[in-house]
Amino acid sequence: MLEINNLHASVVDIDDSEILKGIDLKVNKGEVHAIMGPNGSGKSTLANVLMGRPDYEVTDGDVTFNGDSIIELAPDQRAHLGMFLAFQYPAEIPGVRPWQFLKAALDSKAEARGEEKMSVRNFSKLFDEKVEAVGINPTLVKRSLNEGFSGGEKKRNEMLQLEVLQPALAILDETDSGLDVDALRIVAEGVNSMRSPERSFIVVTHYQRLLNYIEPDVVHILVKGKIVKTGGPELALEVEKDGYKTYLDAAAAGANA
Cross-referenced InterPro entries, in alphabetical order (predicted)? Predict the structure, then answer.
């Protein structure tokens, strides 16, 4: 589904700002991959580069989605292909309610694919079903998007977006940051309920605790812009026990060699 080959990326218009320094990664259909690493390792940069955030520039390498390169595509074009990014800190959008936001997103997706747009009546029915399914307070969806939402409510709202948009690949960028156990369960329940042979996830996180609820198929350790180790779920437990010091020391020794 997703293949990353020798990906290098920097911050736009800033010299010597390379953050990703040769990422190789392959995500097959139906797999859940966890990307772990210390602060400043490039985890969030990778998530944003995959979705085409214009603050970053790909300087080498390629990213393909279902066999086609997406490097030159804008974020909305990547979304139309079936990619989705859950933000670490979801933005508040005053004046736009979740219903309006998701109806516009589905309409845009249908238009890009040459499909018929869902009627307001049918969408309203779908929306109400998904609101109930994710357990979000119905009064919240009458507010502007994320405005005044708690951390857990914002995560429920992102799970609502996942349920409505049904992406083929969902990237969760440190979505567990600052969440209590109940909010972690919200995210995990949303992800686990949507796991299927046709849908994949990339879960970006500092800590193993989220992976207590979402069992990944593959775990990658990202340090200083490079994936330095790949393994199964047991690798996350190893990091929880021993931390990242060994990987940081090895990276520093390599840089000084």
Answer: AAA+_ATPase, ABC_transporter-like_ATP-bd, FeS-cluster_ATPase_SufC, P-loop_NTPase
Are 198 and 29 a contacting pair, CB within 8 Å?
Answer: yes
pTM of the model: 0.89
CATH number, domain containing residue 195:
3.40.50.300
Q: What's the average pLDDT block by block, 10 residues per block, for the chain (257 residues)? A: 96 88 96 91 93 94 96 94 87 89 94 94 94 84 84 82 93 76 78 91 84 89 93 89 83 61
Angle at 126 between CA 187 and CA 124, to 5 degrees: 120
Radius of gyration, alpha carbons of the chain: 19
Determine the structural domain holding residue 36 and report its residue range: 2-256
Contacts 24+ apart (CB under 8 A), 128-133: 130/160, 130/163, 130/164, 131/160, 133/163, 133/193
Q: Is residue 87 within 8 Å of 162, Cβ to Cβ?
A: no
